[in-house]
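Q: How do we represent a protein-ligand complex in a form that can be generated token by token?
A: Start from the inputs.
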Amino acid sequence: SQHRLLIKGGRVVNDDGTQLADVFIEEGIIKQIGLNLVVPGGTKTIDATGKLVMPGGIDTHTHFELPFMGTKSVDDFLTGTRAAIAGGTTTILDFVIPSKEQSLLEAYAQWRERADAKVCCDYGLHAAVTTWNEQVAKDMETLTKEKGINSFKVFMAYKGVFMLQDDEIFQVFSKCRELGAIAMVHAENGSVITELEKEMSTLGITGPEGHLLSRPEKLEAEATNRAITIAEQTRCPLYVVHVMSKTAAEKVTEARLKGQVVFGEPIAASLGADGSHYFHKCWRHAAAHVMSPPLRDDATTGPYLMDLLANGSLSATGTDHCTFNANQKALGKDDFRKIPNGVNGVEDRLAVIWTKGVETGKLDVNQFVAVTSANAARIFNIYPKKGRISVGSDGDCVIWDPEAKKTISAATHNQACDFNIFEGLHCKGLPIVTIVAGKIAYENGQLNAVQGSGKYLDTTCFAEYVYQKLNKREQIREQKIQEQKIERDPYAGEVLDIS
Ligand code: URP
Ligand code: ZN
Ligand code: ZN
Ligand code: ZN
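Then emit the structure tokens for the protein with zinc ion bound:
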């Protein structure tokens, strides 16, 4: 029956090891793992011989039905989670982003309303802090203590819309630290970008290439470094979203080497596509790739970011899935500044990372699980409920065929958008079955996802894993301060001698 499932004959892969074992799931929870399991009669069996059984992917970064730049992203919580499942992802973390008139709490309620009715898999939420005042501080506290949110994103870009100043960022990070939450940052120097955009206009550059040319890599690296610096001063853990360049990744790497609690998130796009498309002859093709920070115009950034994932300098992967169709991208037909920013990836991420990471020999299968699922679960405090195949964990798994092949195309994908930035990429290594809450939600190209069946993950209140790391650092810091204290005698002879 549907509430009992036995996955037989596969190799169970976690981030710390691999074992030949069967997996028995009942009522949505993994109940047994091993060989020769005794299971109730009538249990449905899936043959996974020769295949890998891995924890379902966790996409740390989506924007489903986001009102943004005068329109709304086309993948909603239904098409978005269906596409996720078709790609082997079973948990998505979306961003609550309040509109100008909205409080954080109102925006949170709206996101829950949009998502709960539609999601086909479990989901969690981060929240974006786009203004700073006492009420926002209170709302952050409420979200953390009552609504299951423990991660807050600030924007250093989108000047005049979402961008915060350094002192405001300092306040948000301090608040995060007080609440035991993780600070997240969109790191790009928005003020300088606005000036460079004006320069492009003066030069008569109005096409999508202007998007890339007005957002140089240095502005991403500078802002990344600035965010890391502010995080250090506020002693707050930091998660840098959508790491798009080598030099930004290096800032994260350097800080980690010095022991700071910083995480970097490359996305499917930065690992598997590049910025040469901004110069494509076809406007629509070029505009389809417009996202911020932009894809970098060289073939070496993707492989470099993959190397940093492999050596642990970068931690988790998302997609920043935020899709707009041709007619929406056309809002910026005469001015690249008005092209809605965002690309696809929620369905493609696992296959792209396998193809570019495992097939190339950079990642082993355990590292693949780490960077697509387990690390994200740890950082955002949903581990081992998510991110692990273990007894007691949720029955969210993907059965992976390392030999299966396909060519990515918008013509065949499940994402609602009419373009795919990975169009034509030959993938080797694909999900063949996706199990969501113990039920087969995708099998051999067939989706059987249930609308509204996903649950909101409100277990994320205190960022335990991250703060364990941070508190160790704090102890050492306080010890050092104590050691530096000088014992002064106010009546020392030398002082008195002056008179
Ligand atoms: O271009 C992007 N990244 N669109 C989504 C919003 C954001 O900045 O994450
Ligand atoms: Zn962003
Ligand atoms: Zn084209
Ligand atoms: Zn984003």
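The first strand starts at residue 4 and ends at 8. The radius of gyration is 24 Å.
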